[in-house]
Amino acid sequence: MRFLFKTDYEDDIKLFPHSGYWVSYGILLALLLIAPYVLSSYLMSQLVFVCIYATVGVALLILTGFTGQASLGHAAFLAIGAYTAAYLQKYNVPFPVYFFAAGALTGIIGAMVGFPALRLTGIYLVIATISFALIVEEILARWESVTNGNEGMRVKTLSLLGVTVPRDSPTFYYLCLAVLVLTIVGTLNLLRSPTGRAFVAIRDSETAARSMGVNVALYKVKSFAISAAITGFAGVLFAHKLSFISPEMFTLQLSIEFIIVILIGGAFSLHGAVLGAIFIVMIDPFLTYLKDDVPGMIAGIAAAFGAGKATAGSIQSNVAAFASLNGLKGAIYGIIIVLFVLFEPLGLYGRWLKIKLFFQLFPLYKRATFKRQKIYVKSERNR
Amino acid sequence: MSYFRAENLSLHFGGLKAVDAVSFAVEKGEILSIIGPNGAGKSSIFNLISRIYRPTSGRIFFEDQDITEEPPYDIAKLGIARTFQNIELFENATVLSNLLVGRHRHSTTQLWQELLFLPSVRANEKMHRRRVEQVIEFLDLEPYRDKLISGLPYGVRKVIELARALCSEPKLILLDEPSSGLNVEETDDMSFWIRDMKSELGITVLMVEHDMSLVNRVSDRVIALNYGRVLAMGSPTEVQQHPDVVAAYLGA
Amino acid sequence: MLDFVQQLVSGVALGCVYGLIALGFVLVYKATEVVNFAQGDLMMLGGFFAFTFIGMMGLNYWVGFAGAVAAMALFGMLAERVVVRPILGYPQFSIIMATIGLGYFLRSIAGMIWGTDDLKIETPFSQGVLRIGSLVLAYDKLSVIAATMILCTLLWLFFNKTTLGTAMRASSENMLAAYYMGIPVKRVVSIVWAISAAVATCAGVLLAPITFIHSNVGLVLGLKAFPAAVLGGFGSIPGAVVGGVLIGVIESMAGFYLPEGWKDVAPYLVLLAVLLLKPEGLFGHHVRKKV
Predict the structure, then answer these.
(1) Which Pfam families would you find in this protein's record (chain C) (predicted)?
(2) Last residue of a domain, one of B147, B163, B179
């Protein structure tokens, strides 16, 4: 176990508590930088999606995790970013311009959503954000002169400073990675500044925050705007990655996926947002694997235990039929969410913290360390 | 003119007069206690001053400025800090960040500067951190700096709330039952701190309190309330011997 | 004018279905402060149960209806036991997520068992119409309205006049205190889930002649019923039904009088407008935290 001796106020302000972090994050970054030369193109493509989802996850974390304002409308912000990019691209606006224009526009719309949301809490806020997302979805489908309606829009290949960057090139991956890293660093900076602390203060007690001089309304709107703007940036990358966008890509389902990202990642930390993004993006390859390889493997195991050829064959086809059942993905989603809420409420990052603590304290680790307090009185209703 | 003044302050909930035409003044540098039975309207007065409630009628003045219509967050910016009866801390944050929120009224940095964490932000943060450390030292909170609030005992939380209010470098501090839930020893500490706040930091104190021994030890003047009305005003002994106050407490 | 009345009646009928689902939201919320995002899916499952009893096993409509309600009441208790009880007392957000997960699961399981086709139940009200002058009102729509009125009254009486109802209201205010006063809180919560699943089933079966039953019907209607509950103030039984009827009428009027596309958006626009003016809904109480 490492003990930290602080000798300067700087020690409480710096990004990482001690130098060990620079080493481990440096190694991680190096691995991510050489990834395009090592991994298959399919996995690289998934990695790009991980970057985009994690960026949105961090954005949602700022709003939901740190400011305590639930949102089930982030798919709409992503859509606004994506469509702004696609629309401006038609007029040959260069990438840096429409990238920042998309972020700015989404941020402004986020602030506009934030204003009516000021007086709402809990479920009322959830339903208000759902309503907003549904309305945006309908506008995208109907405003055909701009969005091309339900037929969707093609997104041209990204061109950065005169160089074309195809959506499966390493350069595009580096761009997404850079956006993610900058988002994370910006968020960390925010959290160690007055604004970030005001967000957390609003989450935990609006009354106390107000009495300490925090303009609660202003900071809630700021939080909405920042979160929306980051999501807008991610939307531009999302549009380029898919190269085609249409309204039915930005449904409530996607908003729920973003919430799942921070729930499964867990512990309301930036680590959690990234882990959650990895998890949700990797479900698809996992299911493909389930469909393609597992039936054969199970049949192989059955054969090894002395099952006849006919039996093994029928086992293989049964398992294959099960794995390719329609809607298996939904069921697995559902089970995963429920299991996480029931057994790992702190999420993947929480599990990692527990494992770390276990080895640090061995053999003195107590399971009750992470036990959560249950509250049986109506506290949330009176916030 | 008085330093802080409430004139004919009233707060009505429907037919219930929680505060009924209360007028009082606080002089600069004094410790004024408000006492009274449960439901007398003591905390309501605090909630009126910090603008959690909007007064039905009446006006509030601070440093000769009418603050009745100021938005709640500006009250703190004017230099009025408060604590709460049932502790309102930021549960899932460390003691240090709770205290730093107390510094909020002194923060001058802009959002874009904070996103980049420019040198000016860093310098400001160090300054805030130094000021917070002074308060930590003043209230002996050194062991708890990096602890989460949710894991701390009640007595410590009470002190942290006081510390958070002090971090905002207030001119006037409102203490809502500073000794409730504290044991004898902790109450003693609290009484020393309240007096030190006045003598060392020059802060004017307005407090609501039930513990008469604490009130006697620290107050310069006392106001007794019942049913939202002022019963008596004066030195601690005068007020306690006032026939109306005795009647209100004994239920005669 | 005739069109207007026609639209009004079908709007009210649709709204009653929303109201019934919203009633389920409100019941669970009142008793446990849990927002059950799987409420619509319970309705869907109830519809499929009824289809199995009536359409596949050929039982009498009323027997099948009762069977489906009973089966779903049991299922509601099961869902409560497995998913909700372990996390009672945790932050609202966790519980919302758990019920969203439950919803996913139920939808895809229903899709696996009953397939993805639209199913229809033959009911005694499927055909007939009531003619008043030149006004033609279908029995199936009137039956929905009547059933909603009856159910709503029964539930209101139950919550306000019976001991069990009082116990439920008590445990919703403060579970721990209710437990200390000798109220079997766990059983109360279990019963609430049973009732809300049963109400959802009624909605599902009554709905069957109007819209068909398919595995996503719960999601679609749940998304309409949720605004209904919020509009009514989330916690008020009459509020849920009024909210549902409002949403239903707005939707059907917008579909008839406004250009295409407004039908799906209008209820949400109205909802946002109401929330702007009255953040706690039409019948909700604004509770202030005491400091």
Answers:
(1) BPD_transp_2
(2) B163
